Amino acid sequence: MSETNAANDETQFRRLWWHSRRGMLELDVLLLPFLEEAYRDLDPQDQARYQKLLSCEDSDMFEWFMQRSRPEDPDLQRMVDLILNRVQPD
Questions:
Q1: pLDDT tens-place string over residues 31-41
Q2: Which of 21, 16, 29 is nearest to 66 (CA)?
């Protein structure tokens, strides 16, 4: 990988880190470790799903992660499941 691509990847990762930091502790303790520990190993489709998740409202994400409701979008549900499975393995 060229230095330019590596720098671009790192810049993108930093942006995602800031977008993952929601200011709601319940979301921060799920999203930030997931980003730091798992995001880079995701396939590109799941990385895109994670980015899509970050565009959602905090209140919606809170409901999904507390398992009070489920996203209607199957892509978002897949990402919620991936994140929850990291902290609540069967």
A1: 999 999 999 99
A2: 29
